[in-house]
Design brief:
Helices cover 73% and strands 4% of the residues. It is mainly alpha-helical. The strands form two sheets. A two-stranded antiparallel ribbon has the order 1-2. It has a two-stranded antiparallel ribbon with strand order 3-4. Helix 1 packs antiparallel against helix 2. The two termini are 25 Å apart.
Length: 226
């Protein structure tokens, strides 16, 4: 959507500004982007829940025709929730480790980015995600994203090349090169040495991509009923 494109552009600009070591004002701007991403995620949840309701209705009316598509749709939901929740747990772990268990930025399973105080902390995110000997949790995150992407693509069964291409791009975890041109792992390129608020925003962007991928495949599955 146009709103998503705008958020994506803001995200890219702020990432570039961070790479240039721009002032704390630029880092603070990440809070606004993260709040927009959180709103986008909430909208996806509403949209997807409506689609699941349509699968329920269709399967109730015609179990033979729609039942198998409903089953597959709920398999998509399970996989999407699994990855989404893992990312949410990472956000909570990073903020809690940086600010303590009593941080006002965490309420239950929700993150309130405007309450984060140590926005420029850049050791804790690397400790959690990159870790000693590069054995951090970003490795597990990458594996989960890869599994999720391949599951969604296999669910499309070669019948929707446009959606498949979108999934390959949005859920990409390819290794690349650092600013000096050296081959670098996806984990390091994505998270290393970035301040806490930037890492949280990147993780929120990944959650948007998870829900967007869910929507792409659900729409395809529902179209197959007819």
């Amino acid at each position: 959507s146009p709103r998503q494109k705008m958020i994506g552009m803001m995200y890219l600009i702020l990432t570039a500004m961070l790479a240039l070591n721009v002032s704390k004002e630029a880092v603070e701007a990440f809070k606004k982007v993260d709040k927009s991403l959180t709103t986008t995620i909430a909208n996806y949840v509403i949209k997807n829940n409506l689609i699941y309701s349509e699968f329920d209705r269709a399967a109730a009316e015609n179990p033979t025709k729609a039942g198998k598509f409903k089953t597959t749709a709920y398999e998509v939901k399970t996989r999407a929730d699994e990855l989404y929740n893992y990312i949410q747990d990472l956000k909570i772990e990073i903020i809690t480790k940086a600010e303590g268990e009593d941080t006002p930025a965490i309420k239950g399973n929700e993150v309130f980015i405007e309450e984060v105080k140590k926005i420029d902390e850049n050791n804790v995110p690397s400790e959690v995600l990159i870790g000693a000997s590069e054995a951090g949790k970003a490795n597990t995150l990458k594996a989960l994203i890869n599994d999720y992407r391949e599951f969604l693509i296999s669910t499309l069964d070669g019948k929707n090349p446009t959606a498949e291409d979108a999934l390959v791009k949005s859920l990409n975890t390819d290794d690349g090169r650092d600013p000096g041109g050296q081959p670098t792992r996806w984990e390091n390129l994505t998270f290393q040495t970035l301040p806490l608020v930037a890492v949280i925003t990147i993780l929120s962007k990944m959650q948007v991509d998870v829900r967007n991928g869910e929507t792409e495949v659900l729409n395809h599955l529902y179209s197959q009923i007819d």
